[in-house]
Amino acid sequence: MVASKPAKARSVPECVQVTATPKSAVALDRLIHERIRLAIVSALAVNDSLSFADLKRLLETTDGNLSVHARKLEEGGYLECEKRFEGRIPKTEYRLRPRGRKALEKYLAHMEALIAAARAR
After folding, report:
1. Looking at residue 4, what is its pLDDT?
2. Closest CA to 99 of 111, 88, 107, 91
3. CATH number for the domain formed by residue range(s) 27-120
4. 9 three-state secondary structure
5. pTM attached to this predicted model
6. Where do the structural domains in the chain lie, given as residue ranges?
7. Taking the chain (121 residues) in consecutive chunks of 10 residues, what is each chunk's mean pLDDT?
8. Are 50 and 93 in contact (CB under 8 A)?
9. Would you give the distance in Å from CA 43 to the centre of its chain?
10. Burial zone of 96 (CB within 10 Å; 0-12 exposed, 13-18 middle, 19+ buried)
């Protein structure tokens, strides 16, 4: 059996570094902490854009569930939504806004700090 190398710690930009404290778990960004919203933001972080149909298929969720969560992220300024028609077929395309990318980076740094604090105990 070959021993695997430990994962290389990635540096976290200073603007998003978080120190774990007992109360820091409750300070998570509630807008993206919900499972479907976190999945939407994460999927868009690695894709320039995704259509409604692509997100629905990727997340294996319903139209209503995806639309409610995407709207909350859009209202929070994390996503931008472009609606258009191709012929008579409506198309909805989502992109992650800079505010959403920064929120995801901060959220991930926060989670990494919580994990590190838990492992240190």
Report:
1. 44
2. 107
3. 1.10.10.10
4. coil
5. 0.77
6. 27-120
7. 46 49 67 96 97 97 97 97 94 97 95 90 80
8. yes
9. 7
10. buried
